[in-house]
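Fold this complex.
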Amino acid sequence: MRGFIRGVDAVNYRLGRVMMYGIFVLMGILLWSSISKTFFLPTLWTLEMAQFVMVGYYILGGPYSLQLGSNVRMDLLYGDWSKRRKAWFDAVTVLFLIFYLAVLIYGAVSSTAYSLGYWKDAPFSFLASVMIGTGEIGTVERSPSAWRPYMWPIKVVMIAGFLLMLLQCVSELFKDFLRLQEAET
Amino acid sequence: MPYEMIATLMFSTMMLMLLTGQRVFGAIGFVAVVAALLLWGDKGGFDIGFSAAMKLMKWYPLLTLPMFIFMGYVLSESKIADDLYKMFHVWMGGLRGGLAIGTIGLMVLISAMNGLSVAGMAIGATIALPELLKRGYDKRMVTGVIQAGSSLGILVPPSVVLVLYAMIARQPVGQLWLAGIVPGLMMAALFILYIILRCWKNPELGPALNAEERDLPIAEKLRLLRAGLLPLVIFAVMMVPFVNGWTSLVESSAIGAMTAFMAAVVKGRMTREVFENSVRNTLGITCMFMWIILAALAFGAVFDGLGAVKAIESLFTERLGLNPWVILIMMQLSFIVMGTFLDDTAMLVIVAPLYVPLVGALGFDLIWYGILYTITCQIAYMTPPFGYNLFLMRAMAPPEISIQDIYRSIGPFVLVMVGALILVMVFPQLALWLPNYVYGK
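Structure:
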């Protein structure tokens, strides 16, 4: 359990530290967009690229923000509770969060399968077969804009982000278990 | 089960989950996906959570969010606004209560450079407050001044709250921002009026500075006036290209963030620590906002699918036969009451999807309502037991200011804000004149 916590936290910490600088990438893209619009021809790719970077920024940065404790809670009652009681409640409520993330992942997987031209009802096995190279890729979804980027890479990023978020939640759950154990002894 | 029942059930489950100290986005998202699954099962029930993520990605103005958050942190962490305070100190100090009036001016300028109240709060509590106390100002009055003043951050453009409102109400951000200018300045003027009246009746609340402290050489005074240029430059660099249509809102926000960053670098204030803090906090706060919105969009989608808003509207207008204005006033009152015990981000995402469509259905202008909504949020920011500004104040204020002082300090200012709210309600032109003038509606 401790090993799991250490591993997940380390991965998410490193990733978060990298994504943190995404703010400058985003700023750069938007600045380039305004410069090119004013002095040269307007670029096609900046708008959607900025959106993709933003998605990466907040979804891949999400687990790190959980570590930082940036996510607000309502502390009407919670704020005054003892550490032990907080740990108890967190251990239960984080399960709801995990459920939410699992539904998000399911939605993301079927949407990714769709963007690779698969719309039957076994998206998981389809993606698995694509990964090992046996799956047949159909019509690949593109964004309906002038730049027409492929949609699947950003969706894969989102799946990865949601998965890491879920792992971080499990790690938080384990931390609560450890806290309760400590309180027992 | 009738739809009203489902809606009520969704809200009460969410409230209950919030009370257990669940992370706000977790509570909202969980209720949303469970409701979707129960209602529609495998016919789209699984996709609602994720399709919110795609909707969120395509919602372009949201890109301003990290930019303004970054800007706010750069301003407050690097303390480039110190000089601004000195400027007001020297120029306004001679009046009774002059430093308090100057602080309101300072808050307006800071509000024009960032979209949350945190930066104003940080600068007010760490720089202005100790100085004001040293000069013998009444501690309750100045605590109130700083809290009330910094809350202008969400009304004066650029405003993050209005960006979020714009998304929920599907209204243009530019017009909303312009609509916030006049009420924002009006509210600042009302605060100043209040301070003048108080200090005129009761001079010991805000003694004037003595002569030697004010008698700086005129060259020095003028030099300090230059400090006031910085916010004006940042505001102009950001807003001029936007209002003229050269850049989009999002591009302007990136220019503003870059300018604030460069200003801090040029002034030699961008130390390693400041850089680390601003970048890390930007990620944290952006993630908090984005994940909450992600969950709230799914919640809103389920709600739309239920058609619950129509049901509630007909309940009020047809079955109870209420006048739209009565409903509006009731909504505003309930909003203030909720604001006193709900976290304000939670309030934004819980209340807005319910109230905003209702206001639209009653035939009110949604731009105008955005301003009412923001002023109500400001009040909620400051009213105990839950107010973001109260917590920040508690964390940042010098130790001689007790919780009691903080709670009591806000009373008169909340009254002034309610007054401003009523003024905007009675005279919608206060909010609507400027956007109509600029966009030539």
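The radius of gyration of chain A is 20 Å.
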